[in-house]
Amino acid sequence: MFIWSLLNKQCIIVLTAIGMCLTTVAAMGAPVGENDTLVTIPFGKNNVLKVNLKRGTWDVLCNGKPVITDACATYKGRKIITSNNAGAGKYAAGGDGHGFGIGKQNIHSVTWVSEGMRVTQTFILKPGRDFFITWVSVAGPEAAANYISPMSNGTVIVKDTGDNRALFVPFDNDMWVRYNAQPVAQASFTGSEVTAIYNNDTYRGLVIGSLEHDSWKTGITVQHTANNAVSVTAFGGLTDGNLTHDKIPHGAVAIGDTNCTSPCIMVGMFSDWRMGMEQYATLSTAFNEQVIAPWKKATPMGWNSWGALQTKLTLDKAKGVIDFFSDSCNRFRNADSTLYIDLDSFWDNLVKGGLDGDVTQLQTFVQYCKSKHVKPGVYWAPFTDWGKNDRKMEGSNYTYAQAWLKQNGKPVEVDGALALDATHPGTKARIAWYLGHLKKLGFEMIKIDFLGHGALESDHFYDASITTGMQAYRMGMEYVDSVLDNSMLVYAAISPTMATAPYVHMRRIACDAFSAIDNTEYTLNSTGYGWWQSHLYNYVDADHVVFNRESEGANRARFAAALVTGTLITGDDYSEQGPWSKAAARWLQNKDLLNIIKDGHSFRPLEANTNNKGVELFVKTVGVKTYVALFNFSNSARAYAISLARLGLNDKMKLQATALFSGSKSTWAAPVKITVPPSDAMIYVITSGGK
């Protein structure tokens, strides 16, 4: 959705939803005239935006000190225009508010005329909010472009001394990609959609991120320049062979070829960057219309066959798993007394001749689930062709080759599957055919996977009105949801991080993870730096929890990683007895442990300075309870010193702490020192005690 239609349809709803009431933001000093060169606009608690009309740049000051300097707007279409080379700009307060009564002083814009094009940068600001929203629009003939930036080459100055970090965020969760909290002095990356530049000692930081994800892939480039300063560019038009898996440039964006508008970018200064990331996620949710109905039931819990059975999935195995959870582990249920039993890839082992053939075993599975009071789940990938040969597409008269998405004239293969054009009628007919059959069979949950194939750029799309991968993704996902019609719990596996939120209930935080401690470490890299996604989705998930034959400590860490992430999907072969079933019977029925995920939110990182490794220390407060999780990924014991103040607790008090895995109780008083055994984890719940 482009920003003008966004303003027309949603801006008031968005601003109201986050408490940004439509009050007046007065510019400091006299009204700006044509001969004035500096516009000064206060916002937040003690922040100022300064726009230099003559130079075509903007700065941000916090408490009188510069935080961002010399940022400008850049457009690369038929012509290349930068606001700092476009001549003197003209300032206007608000415009007409687009019929929604937005007060003039809430919206500020600066316009330049250059190369026969009209370039307008807009800012929305408000007192009491330590962030603002900005975008740039270019109007004129042949305005379509595949690169546009409202914040180009801005210098971000980090004033705090100590452990300063810049966060790389990946586009998706494919190919075991990792987040990276790089030291500012070494920062050099282009990430996707959002970054945080923060001090890990004080938590103070800056959050910059895109709020729109349905036309542009947004890139955030951070490059260290000098001392504690980095250059930051936030731009629409990101493509990269590794990051987005595209081998061609981003498609051009325009409205009628006469207007090209950038994604909306949030820029915020926060006393705690973690709160800033959560605010960013919340604001992004408000900005993007939710297509799927919100999940109103309890935090989902269940089992998925890819954890251990994988290609060996059979009806007898699936029924054995159901029996285990019905008989030996019957207290493993969520707050609604619900459990999902999800058949992953290779559920077609249970059918003969496809979904139009003999589906008796699938019907038996669904019926058996319901007889045992659990809910049946299934798996599918709507935008992939694993066969990779030309043949008739299910539900249509088209062939797969006709629907293959192409880059540089060739079909695109990612993860071993060819990508399908999400706008092609054959792709849509196939989606309707598969999902229609799965609905009719009675499945109540679906895990949809490899969604990023539908977001790839293309030489051209079947629907000529679609010009970018994200526009195609929007069309494809909207169609998936229209066919499902809110009949199932929808769980996204591999998928674009930001763009998937309007279409699913829950999302896997990372890629496949199994039982080994290094798998837990990998998962907690994504949870530790992507926890804020639990404010974007109803839930995020740590993937199937597999115990297998690992040590008790490694299994404890794997289980704890799921609790820290926010939901619980297990994955061992529970049709057979083994050490995994004993661990499950003991831990998956522990009420105190299961209570951790009742609220569905991820833990926050306590220390976010592990570069591209997993975060080790986490905290979450629920009511009067504070949970602390500690992980040791190494093969030797690890001693941690925990600051009560950093936990948000009174460091002058003695506190009662319970280790939830062992049940042992202790009294905590500052400073708290805890030793975690090798390849292990601990979770404590803390309540106030004596003075």
Can you give a write-up of this model?
The chain is 19% helix and 30% strand. Mean pLDDT is 92; it is low at 1-35 and 96-102. α9 packs parallel to α10 (552-565). By secondary structure, the chain is α+β, with helices and mostly antiparallel strands. The strands form seven sheets. Strands 6, 7, 8, 9, 11, 12, 14, 15, 18 and 19 form a ten-stranded antiparallel beta sheet that branches. Strands 1, 2, 3, 4, 5, 10, 13, 16 and 17 form a nine-stranded antiparallel beta sheet that branches. An eight-stranded parallel beta sheet has the order 31-30-29-28-22-21-20-32. β24 (406-407) and β25 (410-411) form a beta hairpin. The longest helix has 17 residues, at 425-441.
Helix/strand-derived category reads alpha+beta
Rg, Cα atoms, Å? 26 Å
Query: Span from first to last CA?
Result: 55 Å
Strand portion: 25-35%
Enumerate the spans where pLDDT stays under 50 for 5 or more consecutive residues: 1-35, 96-102
Any idea what the shape is?
Answer: flat
Q: What percent of residues adopt helix (DSSP H or I)?
A: 10-25%
